[in-house]
Amino acid sequence: MPTILIVYYSKTGNTKKMAEAIAQGAKEIEGIDVIVKRAEEATNDDLLKADAIILGSPTYFRLPAWPLKKLIDESIEVYGKLRGKLGGVFTSTATHYGGEICLRALRDALEEHGITVVGEGVIAIEEPSEEEIETCKHYGRMIAERLKNLKG
Ligand SMILES: Cc1cc2nc3c(=O)[nH]c(=O)nc-3n(C[C@H](O)[C@H](O)[C@H](O)COP(=O)(O)O)c2cc1C
Hints:
Blueprint: E1 3-8, H1 14-27, E2 33-38, H2 44-49, E3 52-60, E4 63-64, H3 66-74, E5 86-93, H4 96-112, E6 116-117, E7 122-125, H5 130-151
Parallel strand pairs: 1-2, 1-3, 3-5, 5-6, 5-7
Antiparallel strand pairs: 3-4
The chain binds flavin mononucleotide.
């Protein structure tokens, strides 16, 4: 079954809530498997097995937090092997400006692998509001639908 992997880091729980909402949205689409992992637990093997990879991090100094960056840097070992997969990005941040830069960094990392990032990604300001949770669910559904159209 086509699989979506959502990998996130979260210290105070905000990005985790976004990851869970994106997973919930994606699970609404039949015939798609959804796996959620913390960045500290994710491996290159997980990246290889997934058909879509969605990365989420709190914005730290306008950038992804280091556990996410560690996973990204270590993915050099599978460079060239993730080409053609779908991707997605999300962040929780104090300011929209910082979040945009963080999202850009996550997107750039996926694009450097030849992964096609769907849409603009999602930003939540600190703890996601109900509206931001809905946006996360919608983003998950959107990526799952795109994957189903490609692989289903
Ligand atoms: C070390 C650190 C650095 C941060 N740097 C930024 C920043 O550059 N810009 C910003 O808007 N928010 C920044 N924040 C705020 C976090 O992005 C925000 O609190 C986020 O919701 C935390 O997500 P989490 O609950 O998933 O850990 C920073 C927070 C910490 C702890």
